[in-house]
# Entry
Amino acid sequence: MTSKLHDPETGPAWVPKPPSGVQAEGTMTYGRERIFVKRVKGYFQRMRWLTFAFFLTVFTLLPLLTWGDRRAILFDIPARKFYLFNIIVWPQEFYLVTALLLMGAMGIFFLTTLVGRLWCGYLCPQTVVTNLFMTVERWVEGDRLQQQKLSAAPWSAAKTGKFVLKNALWAVMAAAFGFTFVSYFVPQSELISALMHPSLSATMIAFLMVSGFTLFDGGYFREQMCLVPCPYGRFQGVMIDDNSLMVAYDAQRGEPRGFKGTTTADCVDCTLCVQVCPTGIDIRNGLQYECIGCAACVDVCNSVMTKLDRPTGLIRYTSLSALKGLPFQAVRGRTVLYGGITLLATGFVAYSLYTRPDVALDVIRGRQALAYTLPDGRISNMYTIKLLNKDDEGHSYTLSLQGIPGTIEPPPAPVFVSSGEVASRTVSVIVPPGLSVGSHPFTFTVVTADEPHARPVITPSTLFVPLAQTR
Ligand code: SF4
Ligand code: SF4
# Structure
């Protein structure tokens, strides 16, 4: 990717470069040193806090919603059942979960080709948590300069007090996040009970792990999550092209940079865009994969330009094509590919949900003998019928036979099955003498007796007519 944004001294865009304030080589990522992030205000930061509030509201409220007498959203891992409002996804329907995940992933890929890393900057839980933690940190320790001074100062009672207070507040926030997250998988009453009576239960371990990770991530790991383990950040080069929206520095306007009065270019080299960057990079070095598109540098640079009475947008949301003066192209290979897969996956999920019956019929042939010949010459085959009620209320079901001149014994009466329960019956299919020897295909059909408009479920089976008579 070459452009006017590309700085020949710092190499091509998307090649990892050590963030400023970070050592070039080292352990976890680049032998990371703490990044002190200056507070910034501006239009995009207000937009971000609105999206953060939206995320937190949805994330907190979803586990509290009820649907009838159960939770509206619950991922019951031990029972391998997912509750999504009126839908219950059963283990045999996990293809739906796979399709949903594919739909979500491709949807994000599609959006990324259009609008770059808006997800990272505005809605990713990692971003939301890190920003909340940084806000508390500023409240306790002050802004960037005070934090730097405190960090460099020797340990004292005041420094220890701030350290303890900051970590205690973070721990409370991490516990709240952990509680909410785990309550997507465990009924809240069970979670509260596990917390009130501490023991090493699976619920308690999950709560401690999520809360501990949140504390570590939001307080200490921070931007490294985006730079190292997060695969999304690593795939940016595949998803983004010249037409994707991204935060970029307009080098034509800004270079040669220099203090006010020393250059006619717009960048006064105040370095504020570096000081506010949560990943510690200098956007003036060109596009870098560490940029999460948070627009903090846009807001701060706009405020500098406004004070200098110069046009804003020296750093702005743009695309490489726009910077070259080329028109925006929405339809291109990547958008068609990712958009097409997203549409297909969405259509598949919608069709599957629409045509999905609320009852599953499982037919297992009798294991002891393939067939019996009754004293009157009729042939009998045995089957175990299993009915699973996938609906969220109980129903009566009736079984019938098609495709063969036979009867079911005992004659099938409507069977009531409670929501989520399985009813199992052993039945015989009896056909009159005269059928040819061998297998005869037929179908079992189950209809919901108390819901005449519900779709019938049809399951194929076979009936065997023996050569030798088995009594
Ligand atoms: S904030 Fe703007 S003016 Fe200041 S260094 Fe960054 S690009 Fe240059
Ligand atoms: S370069 Fe700008 S947009 Fe990118 S992460 Fe840093 S502050 Fe945010």
